[in-house]
Specification:
Blueprint (H helix, E strand, L loop, with lengths): L1 E6 L8 H8 L3 E6 L14 E4 L14 H15 L3 E4 L1 H9 L4 E16 L1 H4 L10 E12 L5 E3 L1 E2 L7 E4 L3 E4 L7 H10 L13 H6 L5 H14 L1
Parallel strand pairs: 1-2, 1-3, 3-4, 4-10
Antiparallel strand pairs: 5-6, 5-8, 7-9, 9-10
């Protein structure tokens, strides 16, 4: 399989997705929007991953390439290729499916548990996998469930933590792709957001608990095997 990855920040890479792709002999290509790259034609890849970033879906005037990316995602949706969106990526998928992305009541940054919805846990992507675990979060926006989608999960701070759509699209608000190195880069480059609050941990607390990636790594690798 040819996997294409959309990147929005120089410090927010694919994490363990890249390890998984190498293990499965998948070729990997990238569009780096922060460098001015143009997305490829849809027939040049088999699966699409849309990564996170510090920008918001509705900041087209600040990041003009967002409009190009949105059109690219809509065209890819029509091809019914397997797609995974993480954080900003999940919000871009919700936007492409007609849902408004908006500020969450509270930002959620750090290590917090999520509960997989009972309907989602019956889906073949998640059957037999844990339905409750602690994972890494870094988002301030959210969305309502797109029409025709199945709610994936929730947390105390965020009602909709992702969704499944038509058996080929998975959207995740949280960050199961992170490893210690990726989290370190995110903390280093996002210090201005790490003002402790109810659902925001400081950089030290986040870095002290990177061992918690162990609770989601195997879960996420199993999901990748099933989605792609």
């Amino acid at each position: 399989m040819r996997l294409h990855i959309l990147l929005h920040e120089p410090f927010e890479g694919p994490g363990i997705i890249l390890n998984w792709a190498k293990r499965n002999n998948q070729s990997v290509s990238y569009t780096r929007f922060f460098q001015g790259d143009t997305p490829p034609l849809q027939d040049t890849f088999d699966g699409l991953v849309i990564m996170g970033g510090g920008m918001n879906v509705y900041e087209d005037k600040v990041y003009p390439w967002l409009q190009e990316e949105k059109e690219f995602i809509k065209k890819t949706l029509k091809k019914k290729k397997p797609m995974l969106g993480i954080c900003l990526g999940s919000q871009l998928l919700a936007d492409a499916l007609g849902e408004q992305v908006f500020k969450n009541e509270k930002a959620e940054i750090g290590w917090f548990p999520v509960t997989i919805d009972q309907q989602a846990i019956k889906h073949h992507w998640f059957k037999g996998l844990p339905d409750y675990f602690t994972t890494f979060h870094w988002h301030a926006d959210t969305y309502k469930l797109p029409e025709g989608a199945v709610q994936l999960a929730s947390s105390k701070a965020t009602t909709c933590q992702g969704f499944i759509y038509k058996d080929h699209i998975l959207a995740l608000q949280f960050h199961p792709e992170t490893d210690e190195e990726l989290i370190g880069e995110m903390v280093k480059n996002g210090q201005d957001e790490l003002i402790p609050d109810t659902w925001v941990q400081d950089g030290d607390e986040i870095l002290e608990n990177t061992w918690l990636t162990n609770t989601t790594t195997q879960w996420f690798l199993s999901v990748l095997d099933r989605v792609f």
